[in-house]
Amino acid sequence: MIENFLQALVAGIGVGALYGLMCVGLALIFSVMRIVNFAQGELLVAGMYASLFLVGPIGIGNRLGVYVGPVVAALLGGVIVFFLGMALYEFLLKYISGMRATHMEGDGHNPQLSLTLGLSLILSNGALLVFGSTPQSLQTPMSSTAWEVHPFPGTDIVIFLNEARMVGAVVAILVAIATSVFIANARQGKILRAAADNPVAATYMGISVDGAYRLAFGLGAAVTGVAGGLVAIYLPFQPYTGVEFVMVMYAGVVLGGMGSVAGAFLGGLVIGLVQQLSTLVLPQQLQNTAVFVIFLLVILLRPQGLFGKTVDRV
Amino acid sequence: MNILDFTRRSAAISIAAIAYAFTAGPSHAAPQPVKLAVIVPLSGPWARNGELHLKGAQLAVEQINAAGGIKALGGAMIELVVGDAGDSTEKAKNAAQRLVSANPDLTGGTGAFVSSFTLAVTEITERASIPWLTLSYSDQILNRGFKYVFMTSPAASKQAADALPVIFNVAKSVGAPAPKTIGIIMDNTASPASFTKPMREGGFEKSGLKLVVDEVFTPPLSDATSLVQKVRTARPDMLLVLTTNVPDTKLVLEKINEMGMGKGRLPILTNGGHMGAPELVKATGKDMLEGVMVAIANWGGKGQEELIKAFQTKTNEPWMTQDSISTYGDIQLFKDAIEKAGSADSKKVAEALRSMQETSGAAKYFPGTLKFDATGARSGAQLVILQWQNGEPKPVYPASLATSTAVWPKR
After folding, report:
1. Do A298 and A266 meet the contact criterion of CB atoms below 8 Å apart?
2. ipTM (interface predicted TM)
3. Quick check: B225 and A11 CB within 8 A?
4. pLDDT in tens, B153-191
5. Which of B8, B95, B152, B380 could cysteine-pair with B369, CB 3.0–4.6 Å?
6. Contact (CB<8Å) B229/A137
């Protein structure tokens, strides 16, 4: 029983940390730009393919080996997705957000919804054309090997720490902390917060709101892209894989408290934990039902989210 | 155009027609080609299966035509007409409708892989009295009282009923003790549900098996830890892993390996075409699959070495899957039936198929005996068991097809 509990706990942390990182990307975009990005799942998949491209054709896998290679590729894949995000903002999102949206009905939420939803369809179907529907995967022994831990010497209780999940979780936590520190302390981070707080006032203070939004979208895309690269270490993927994670991302962001980066990470982590720990008492089929029951309860009892104060930006 | 022009043109056409009739008259003409249809998904999520089907059929047509065509019809060539069943029953039905109306002289056809597509396609072909061979194995295909549908694979209910006794035979053949306990990890989609239904409803008891782990999940899986942890605690003598897509399969198999039950320590039985696909080994790596057994309707094996070699050369595929050998066999079967009927008339060919009880010719491409009953089921159809050995799915049962001996994993 203890073994089952510890095993589920470890699995929950492994899954949850990556969910958390995906949520951070979505929350960053939402908190700065007030855009609910429906194409976030596709940015996750972009991170997966970027990682695959870096490991294979670019040769990071050969140079750094099957252990370090995929992790470095996930981080560098984030850089590629960063530029993809900036480009998407520059060519599309710019026209329906920021100062341009202030005069639109409902702050431009309708065009934002249509655009990001359309973008999601175009990106996934475009990827289908280019990459095909055959599932791809990064070949690494990490996904099928585990560190065996004996938490209670003298008993036969063994906890398996899957290498891919644990490495993924550690990297995810580090990236989330780095993002948080960047926003809190760096000059660019302060600009992001200013643009988020009051775009008009920020403009009067000489801040380029446009530039801040571009950076926010790029950064939000990159963080989710890194999460994608880390997921790709253990899960085969194809162009539609993003859909499976999108619901988790929205739920995690709302659960943690809209607009809070740390809250979003913890929201994702809670979802991972509930998903895995629920299997101890409920049938496996009800895993996601458990997640959404908890989600609804939180919304009912604490509408601002678990870690949100009130509606607060960044 | 004035009347003079018209007359001149008509005259010219008539002269040309007469000239053609003299030069290419019936005494010199090659016999009319025999048209056979293949309707499979060539776009959408099942496009890869459709591609494998088509490759098998094309090879058969090429070989038959190169060997002089159909002798009973004076060396008539076979012409393949292809329809794309797409990704929905609606598209499959439309493809069949278009194909049948564009080719009123169609002799027969094969397809459409996905059972629901086959149900739709055969609604059209049945009305046109076109004999239709299919690998799809839903029982529903047989239960409609149709006269022109022939199922070459064992029906789903038969596969499920046969799987356990067959796997016991495999264990016995290598001298391993019969398993006493069993576990199930499956997703809650239609195929695993129907495969395990007869087992749950008395099949396990009849085989003397006790179900000790029964884990059903909703795909896609985020993590297989809790599923496999339960298997690790209960330690069944064998495990059924009934997943329906590559990512879930990878997560489960890797977790089994990680928890020290992989690489042949726990006997694992799976089912379905995707478990023998070349792309699976690319996604999971060959170590994860080592020893895993797959219950399947058909496979290229012993006695078909030449055919498999020709297939590999033509297509660059590493082996001949259930999809390719079935359509290859279907075209060969049509050839045999046309030779027997001495006609390419669809009704006569259907009659010939119904009266078949062969042991040679196309019979060797279908495990078991080749004889269709009144419902169109191949009554003697036998289940094939593959086992992944060194990165390749090798048939280990029945003995007539086996290219390798089963390795019954030791605990």
Report:
1. no
2. 0.88
3. yes
4. 998 888 888 888 888 888 888 888 889 999 999 988 777
5. B380
6. no
